[in-house]
Structures are given as C-alpha cells and as structure tokens.
Amino acid sequence: MSNKDDTLTNEIDAQDQMVRGSAWMTAGSIFSRILGAIYIIPWGIWFGSFFLQGNALYGKGYNIYSFFLIAAIAGIPSAIAKQVAHYNTLNEYGVGFRLYKHGLVLAGATGVICMLVLYFGAPLFDGGDPHVVPVLHSLAWAVLIIPVMSLSRGFFQGYQDMAPSAISQFVEQLARVLYMLITAFLIMRVWHGSWITAVSQSTFAACVGAIFGLITLGVYYLRRRSMYRDLVANSNNQIVVPAKQLYQEILQQALPFIVLGAGITIFQLIDQFTFFKFMPSTGITNKVMLNDLFALFSVNANKLIMITVSLSSALAITAVPLLSEAFTRNDKKDISGQITNAVLLFEFVMLPSALGMAAIAHPLNILFYGVAHKGLAAAVLAFSSFMSIMLGLFSVTSAIMQGVSQNKRAVRYFLIGTAVKLLLQWPCIHFMGVFGPLVATMIGFIVANYFIMHWLNGEFGVDYAGIAKKTNGILSFSLIMCLIAYVLVKVVSWLIGHFMVVDSRVGSTVVIIFAVGIAGMFYVYMVLKTRLADTVLGARTERLRQVLKIK
C-alpha cells in the first residue's frame, strides 16, 4: 500500500475513532444533562411557592462548589488522558499506569484540601446570603470523592475507551437525581420542613451520585484488568520516568486545565457576585425580585442550555487524546484534519440544538419552570440558547489547544476574554438588565474563541474553506428547522388552545412534541439526503439512510 493510501486510512480511522468516542461521550453527557433538567419539574412542584427562591439558592451554592470542584480536580483527569495517550502511542503502557497511580495520590490530596477549605470557609463565600452556608457544607463532601472518580475517567479516555466514562456519568446523575427527589418530597410534602433544608439535601445528592459513579468505574476496571496487564507486559519498557518527573508532568499539564475547565463557571461566578450589586442601578432593589431574576438567567436558563453545551464538551474531551497522539507524531496535517473534524462535528449537533431550543423557548420554559415571569423567562432562555453556541465553541477550541500542548496560550486568550467580560458587565447590566450578563458573557467568549482559532490557523492551517462550505449547509438547514419549529409552536398552540390550557405543563408538552418531532425530522432528512452528514459522521450514515429509506 502506498504512503498516500496509508495517510488516507489513518485519517479515516482517526475520524471514525473521534466519532465513536464522541458518540459515547455525547450519549453519556446528554442523558446526564437531560436527567439533570427533568428532575426540576417534580422538584419545583414540591417546593411550591419557594421554587424560584430555592432554585436561586441551589444555583448560588452550585456555582461556588463547581469552582472548588474544578480546583480539586485540578485538570488532572484531562492531563492524565493526554499523557496516557502520549505514552500509549509510544507503546509505554507501564508509564501510563504509573501516571495513573501517582495521579490518584494528587487527586486525593487536592480533594481533601479543597473540601476542608470549602466546608470551613463557607461563611466567606456566601456573598451576604447566610442560607448559602449549609448548602456549601453539604456540597463539600462531594469534593472529597469526585476528583478520584474524574481521574479514573481520564485514565479510560487515555485508552480511547469512552464507554466507562459515559456510563458512570449516567449512573452518577441517576443516583443524584433519585436522592434529590426523594429527600425533596419527604422534607417539603411529608414532613413540611424548611425549604433551605430541602435545598441542602438536594445538593448533598452530588456526594451520593459520586459514590455510585466511582463504583461503576471500579467494575469496568476489574473487567478490563487482564487486558491492561497484557499491554503493560508487552510494552517497550525503554522509558524510565522517575516519580518526581511524573508528578511534574501531571502538574504542568493539569494547572492550566483549572482555568480552562472552570471557564464557564468563572463567568457564572462573575455574574453571581456582580449581578446583585449592579442591578439596583436599573431601579430594581427588592431582594426577592433580584433572586427571581438571578434564577431566570443563571440557574433556569443555564440548566437547559448546558444540555446542548454538554454535547460540545463531550467532543472536546474526545479531541484531547487524539490530538495529543498526532502532536506526539508531529503530524501537522493530521492535526489540521482533526481540528476540522472537531469543529464540524460541533456545528453539526450544536447549531440545530441551540437554534431549536430558542424556537421552542416559551413552551420549554413552562414545561420545566411553570408560568412565573413566563414572558421574560422565555426571552431569557431564547437569548441564552444563542449565547450557548459561543460557550460550546470555547469548550472545543480550548480542548484543541490543550491537545496540542498550548495550555498557557489558551489560558492567556481566556483571560483576555474574561477581561472583556468584566469591562462590559456593569454597562451591559445597567442598560439591558437581566440580559446584560448574558451579552457580556457572549462577547467575552467570542473574543477568546477568535484568538484561539486565529492562532490555530496560523500554526496548523485550518481548512476554513472546507469548514465554511459545510457550515453554510448546516446553518441553512438549522435556520429552516428553527423557523419550522417556531411556526409549529404558534400553530399547535392555537389549535390545542380550543380545548385545553396551552400555558400549562401538559399543553407545553404537546406543543414541544409536535414542534421538535417535525422540525427535527426535517433536519435529519436534509443532512442525510444531501450527504452533508457523510462528511461529518462518515460511512455509517449510509446504513441510517437505508433504515429511513432515504435515497
């Protein structure tokens, strides 16, 4: 076989590997996110009139917890995935195993430290709301366990084995949601207890979920143990890396991951600690109203858009070890091809998801959050859906930079975007109210994404012409799909309005089923009919066309 044929085969294998890995990570992430959103319907019903206040408290605690969790994880899982993939490419599986064992020590240590700081320092992080303290106390226990669980996921990902990560993620979320719902029902409806206690138990569910997620990973490891032993036994064993060097490699790779991994969370914390200070300049000073508005954009809308952002995050995780392998081989052509694949795969799922969510924002908001502030809440969700495209793109572009060992440069570009966000925060909130933080966030991520893509193009020659041609097709079908969904929402709402209440959870469910079903089928049909899906997903689309009888 010629070198040209070998290169083509490698490119196809790499794309197929990325699609397979993305499929597992996307499935695990999307199901977890859906579970994490659906629970809000019964949870909100059981909280009754305390729902928005409870959800705002939940969001305040979770934003702070998320930052501490990322600091505790310290980017070690992604660093482990990257370094394990690097050594596996060199047939040095034994070194990868030593990395994992030393990583466990680091993850355990950072987990303990961050747990103690969060628990005992909770009064320092409450932002003037004492109700946040018990919530942070309940979340601190999860910080103790999740770093080790995340590290183990990174080890599997270093072998391009995405199934354990995806399934453990789903199990973790399922256990978390079940505990949340059971405790919320018992406290609020059976015992008629405090809504603050109920929120604290709902956040403690993160620890319960982590325990079940870690057990799932342990089962997968035991099943694959003999295979790992064979790989280690047949390694080249020519590289001897001292323990001190292994720790240095982990930390050098991991520390920038803290900033990049916490990127979206950092922006949310900026919102949390500035929104209540800047909003009074708009004339709104009532604390309950401010909490309601904060819940609308930072908790309610954010919970739904993160379902779509999680799709791109799944792609980002898949890209890191693959790009690391190509970078280790110094194969710039392969790196350029994988950047193109990652961006197109991101667009293929993100654009229709985000635009579709914006089109059905009104019934979707009512389904999950009821009719409180329904007009404003729908507008906030629609705008957040458009903004989520930039959040998702940053997840992909920052992961690409990490995959090609440009962590510090990626951090620098993110910090520029953060500075833009900080500069725009007050004027945006002053003139646009609850939409202000979203506008500042979107512009900040646009700036960060621009700098990253500009550098990648200069270094590896991104195929913008090829991306643009396919992007035009994806965007065109997505916009038509969005228009179809929007019209269907109006038409179906008018039709069912003759015999049932449209602005109810049942009415909204009917509207969403029709709008999403028909508009979604249009998008799937068009990308398969025009063969646009083939260039992104590969040859497996032919079988899908046969099943759907599309010629």
Notable traits:
551 residues; mainly alpha; 20 helices; globular; disordered N terminus; transmembrane; transmembrane helix; cell membrane
Description of the molecule:
- With 551 residues, the protein is an all-alpha fold.
- The chain has a domain at 15-261.
- Helix content is 85%, strand content 0%.
- It has 20 helices and no strands.
- It has helices at residues 3-38, 40-47, 51-73, 76-89, 93-120, 132-158, 163-190, 195-233, 243-261, 263-278, 287-328, 332-359, 361-369, 374-403, 407-432, 436-460, 464-496, 505-529, 532-537, 541-548.
- Helix 7 (163-190) runs antiparallel to helix 8 (195-233) and helix 9 runs antiparallel to helix 14 (374-403).
- The longest helix has 42 residues, at 287-328.
- The radius of gyration is 23 Å and the shape is globular.
What is the gist of this entry?
The chain is built from 20 helices and no strands. The protein is mostly helical and 551 residues long.
Q: What share of the residues lie within helices? A: over 70%
Q: What is the overall silhouette?
A: globular
Secondary-structure content class: mainly alpha
Distance between the termini: 33 Å
Rg over alpha carbons = 23 Å
**What is the count of β-strands?**
0
Mean pLDDT figure:
85
What is the tally of helical segments?
Answer: 20
Low-confidence segments: 3-12
Largest sheet: none
What proportion strand? Answer: under 5%
Order of helices and strands: HHHHHHHHHHHHHHHHHHHH
